[in-house]
Amino acid sequence: MPKTTILFDLDGTLIDSTSSILNGFHSAFSKFGFAQPNDEQICSLIGHPLDYMFCSLGVPNSLVLNFVDTYKEAYRKTYLEQTKLLDGAKEAVELASNIADIGVVTTKTSKYSICLLEHLGIGKYFQTVVGKDDVINPKPHPEPILKALSNLNKSNQNAYMIGDTSMDAMAAKGANIISIGVSCGYEKIDNLFKICDWVEKNPKEAVERVNIISNL
């Protein structure tokens, strides 16, 4: 059997950047004089690309790029200081790096993702980071996963995607790899059970599950 490959989502899987994300959205809606969405509405969309999120929150298509630019301006000022690792994330990454080739597949841009990983002290473990800017079709399309596998010179055999949303699982299914959902993020756990191959509480337990499956 080929060496294991483990791909991680970021927000809600390894990191919590909710405060910075919410600040960015509220800054954009405030600047353009739109009624503020509530935090629950925003959080329910985290994991989707920004343009999709703003459209879903009622922003006209003609203004979406302006909202995205304003969001990014605010996000840049706070994302490092307002982002933290989720419980078990560092242990998960350390364990994963010992048993597998590992990477990140996210709808953040790779630039911000790499900066965050380095800032949080876990960047050295990852062999590839694929962001929204690296592909034409972001998750839930399988393209980001397929690109990460290509970057690692790996096939879809003995490969796993660990993430907190149904988009991660859909992308995994499209790429024909195993999906493991984690309930520490933004998706309702009932949705994860409907679509994921496995569901665990956190990334550490997810990696432990991979270790069990890959050694069967």
Give a brief description:
This protein is an alpha/beta fold. Helix content is 46%, strand content 14%.
Task: Please tag this protein with its features.
EC 3.1.3.18, HAD-SF_hydro_IA, 10 helices, 216 residues, phosphoglycolate phosphatase, alpha/beta, Rossmann fold, two-stranded antiparallel ribbon, six-stranded parallel beta sheet, hydrolase, HAD-like_sf
Mind sketching the topology for me?
Layout: E1 4-8, E2 15-16, H1 18-31, H2 39-43, H3 50-56, H4 64-78, E3 84-85, H5 89-99, E4 100-105, H6 110-119, E5 128-130, H7 143-151, E6 159-163, H8 166-174, E7 178-182, H9 189-195, E8 198-200, H10 203-214
Parallel strand pairs: 1-4, 1-6, 4-5, 6-7, 7-8
Antiparallel strand pairs: 2-3
In CATH terms, the superfamily of the largest domain is HAD superfamily/HAD-like
Question: How can the largest sheet be summarized?
Answer: 6 strands, parallel
Looking across the biggest beta sheet, what order are the strands in? 5-4-1-6-7-8
Structural class: alpha/beta
Principal-axes shape call: globular
Spans of at least 5 consecutive residues whose pLDDT stays below 50 are none
Overall pLDDT: 96
Describe it:
With 216 residues, this protein is of the alpha/beta class. The chain folds into 2 domains: 3-14 and 82-213, 3-Layer(aba) Sandwich (Rossmann fold), CATH 3.40.50.1000; 17-74, Putative phosphatase, domain 2 (DNA polymerase, domain 1, Orthogonal Bundle). It is 46% helix and 14% strand. It has 10 helices and 8 strands. The chain has helices spanning 18-31, 39-43, 50-56, 64-78, 89-99, 110-119, 143-151, 166-174, 189-195, 203-214; strands at 4-8, 15-16, 84-85, 100-105, 128-130, 159-163, 178-182, 198-200. The chain has a 6-stranded parallel β-sheet with strand order 5-4-1-6-7-8, with helices on both faces. Helix 1 (18-31) crosses helix 4 (64-78) and helix 3 packs across helix 4.
